[in-house]
Amino acid sequence: MNKIRILLAEDDDNLGILLRNYLNAKSYETSLFINGNLALEGFNEESFDLCIIDIMMPEMDGLTLAKEIRFMKPDIPVIFLTAKNQQEDIIEGFRSGADDYITKPFSMEELVYRIEAILRRTAGNTINKTGESYLIGGYTFDSQKQILKYQDQSIKLTTKESELLELLCRQGNEILERNFALKTIWIDDNYFNARSMDVYITKLRKYLKKDPSVKILNVHGKGYKLLI
């Protein structure tokens, strides 16, 4: 069985080498690049299955690098490495199609967990995406136009409704962690934002109830799961 090949773009030499060695020890074949330009050159020359990209890098920042990579290979999973004060960059990263992010400092075990979750999701995602639309049971969800359609009926979603539904779709029958969704959409995972998200989940359930095979489940202590 071929090893999963990972592109790692990290300008901190110590962290980059540590991550590369750890991932290689976990049976991933990892190539380290110390800036965005070198990473893009490497991506053009080799074949990769997943990218781990630091947002703040010299010569070409991580957001630009991710957009260039996604232009060449739209479906490749991307995980961003971010600092705690880069919330706006995180939101921009998701809008450009990133799959996940992890905030420094982080544990190696958490990074591997996120890699494995993304690889499972991309290998067995049963929520199909065609262009800018997701097929959710009998529904079609256009994430750009923020329209949820069922047969001849259409619902115009609010921005937060659309962002939350898209995160659920991206998880593809995997758990959407509450804190992850809160920090991605609401920026802050405080009590009031958590209650607000619960209200939006209730709204999405109402919109999706026309197809009884589609369900948003509560996963106690963890988050939500979209099932079709």
Sheet with most strands: 5 strands, parallel
Order of helices and strands: EHEHEHEHEHEEEEEHEHHEE
Task: Identify the overall geometry.
Answer: globular
CATH architecture of the largest domain: 3-Layer(aba) Sandwich
* H/I helix tally: 8
Radius of gyration: 18 Å
Report low-confidence residues grouped into runs of 5 or more.
none
The top level CATH class name of the largest domain: Alpha Beta
At the fourth CATH level, what is the homologous superfamily of the largest domain?
Answer: Response regulator
Q: Can you describe this structure in just a few lines?
A:
This protein has 228 residues and is of the alpha/beta class. The protein has eight helices and 13 strands. A hairpin with a 2-residue loop joins strand 9 and strand 10 (153-156).
Topology:
Blueprint: E1 5-9, H1 13-25, E2 29-33, H2 36-45, E3 50-54, H3 62-72, E4 78-82, H4 87-95, E5 100-103, H5 108-124, E6 128-130, E7 133-136, E8 139-142, E9 147-150, E10 153-156, H6 159-171, E11 176-177, H7 178-186, H8 191-207, E12 215-219, E13 223-227
Parallel strand pairs: 1-2, 1-3, 3-4, 4-5
Antiparallel strand pairs: 6-7, 7-8, 8-9, 9-10, 11-13, 12-13
Helix pairs in contact: 2-3, 6-8
